[in-house]
Design goal:
Blueprint (H helix, E strand, L loop, with lengths): L14 E4 L4 H12 L3 E6 L17 H6 L3 E5 L5 H11 L4 E4 L5 H4 L4 H7 L4 E6 L14 H7 L2 H4 L14 H24 L4 E6 H8 L3 H8 L16 E5 L5 E5 L3 H10 L14 H6 L1 H12 L4 H10 L4 E3 L10 H6 L2 E6 L3 E6 L23 H7 L4 H9 L5
Parallel strand pairs: 1-2, 1-4, 2-3, 4-5, 5-6
Antiparallel strand pairs: 7-8, 8-9, 10-11
Helix pairs in contact: 1-8, 8-9
Length: 401
């Protein structure tokens, strides 16, 4: 697929300055750029966004995915002339995203008070690990620490295993998604209610705690921490991964009473409907191991393909366990174009998630590949009415690239 070349989507006309680094801020602005916003990435002239250093076989796939549709302007924010360029860009921007340690923006002469003087309606999203205030606000806040601190790792894994961290930037991506929603809500306040600009204090900790839902409430009610139950669930059963005859895995979630009863009938065990161990969801959770053994024994007698065909025929909620390669070959994924193959200078093409969600009237799109460091510098600086001589001087002095 060749990028469209022109931005499209419901956010076309929105201008975002993204001063963030790594995942959370990039994921936030990724969502906005997908839907048509103009996102200008402010990067360090020497090394660029550290996300570029996350490589596989020497290729920065994370950067290529999360920074498509964005423009890059490389500025030395420690230089007063670099700071002035950012302030000039703020005049025509709707929002600014940053994830320096609390106080970092102020060190660059870009405090919220200064920014609001220039653009009173500006939305400033300040991403940090622990929040802008509090005893931990000064600490580094990488997603790994938050995934551990929030309770997520403690409940992940099997009963006899150690706590388990996710093998992706979960806290960052949860935060980025929540931040995109928050930024748009703040813009609505400006545009619809004639409100003023404001600062959004967006912490990875509170985003992950929100994601954990009712866990603390449940623990207070039971007097115990949420247990590790592997691929099962502490609130619903049957729900698990079951090994098939051909050593594949099938996922089943039959937590609704009607679905459970349908499952019992389908596997030839209708008597289980009245079995006192399984008559309610709460009882099934208490007797999860016995229930999983029964369901697992049935599934183990057939291949994955046979199980899938059988459970689909019986209208049972079951599905395969895909890995990051097999999902690309799934018929539904192909038909829906869940992934797109984007032309790439390093690999020829790269499979990437398509734009989501899908808008019927004003769909977003992919209009450009991820930029090189400072690729759009001249274009952006000329929009500020800087002449060629000034741009050349700034480049020679290292203020920009």
């Amino acid at each position: 697929m060749t990028p469209m070349g022109e931005a499209s989507g419901p956010l076309k006309g929105l201008k975002i300055l993204d001063l963030s680094r790594l995942v959370a801020g990039n994921y936030l602005s990724f969502h906005l750029a997908e839907l048509g916003a103009e996102v200008i990435k402010i990067e360090d002239p020497k090394s660029g966004d550290p996300l570029r250093q996350f490589t596989d076989n020497g290729i920065s796939n994370s950067w290529k995915v999360f920074s498509r549709n964005k423009k890059s302007l490389a500025i030395n924010l420690k230089d007063p002339e670099g700071q002035k360029i950012v302030l000039d860009l703020v005049r025509s921007s709707h929002a600014l995203i940053e994830n320096f340690k609390p106080g970092g923006l102020e060190k660059f002469g870009l405090s919220p008070a200064t920014l609001f003087e220039i653009k009173p309606s500006l939305i400033i999203v300040r991403i940090s690990g622990w929040g802008q205030t509090g005893p931990y606000s000064h600490k580094p806040g990488f997603g790994t620490l938050i995934e551990a601190f929030s309770g997520f790792a403690a409940k992940s894994g099997f009963p006899d295993s150690e706590p388990l961290l996710p093998n992706l930037g979960l806290a960052d991506m949860v935060t980025g998604t929540l931040g995109a929603y928050a930024l748009m809500a703040a813009l609505r306040e400006v545009e619809v209610n004639q409100g003023k600009g404001q600062v959004i204090d967006l912490s990875l900790l509170e985003s992950m705690v929100s994601f954990m839902g009712a866990d603390p409430a449940t623990s207070q009610a039971t007097g115990k921490p949420i247990p590790r139950v592997g691929n099962g669930s502490e609130i619903a059963a049957p729900r698990n991964l079951y090994k098939t005859q051909d050593q594949q895995y099938l996922a089943i979630s039959a937590s609704m009473q009607s679905m459970t009863e349908k499952l019992f009938i389908a596997i030839g065990q209708p008597a289980l409907i009245d079995d006192p161990r399984f008559t309610s969801n709460a009882k099934r959770v208490e007797n999860r191991e016995a229930l999983d053994a029964i369901v697992g024994a049935f599934i183990a007698e057939n291949t994955l393909a046979e199980n899938l065909a059988f459970f689909e025929q019986q209208s049972i909620t079951a599905g395969p366990v895909h890995d990051s390669m097999s999902i690309l070959e799934d018929a539904h994924v192909i038909d829906r174009q869940v992934f797109v193959e984007l032309d790439d200078a390093d690999c020829g093409s790269l499979p990437m998630p398509n734009v989501a969600p899908r808008f019927s009237a004003t769909p977003g799109g992919i209009h450009s590949v991820a930029p090189s460091i400072g690729e759009h510098g001249e274009e952006i600086l000329k929009s500020l009415a800087l002449d060629a001589q000034t741009i050349a001087r700034l480049s020679a002095s290292g203020v920009i690239q």
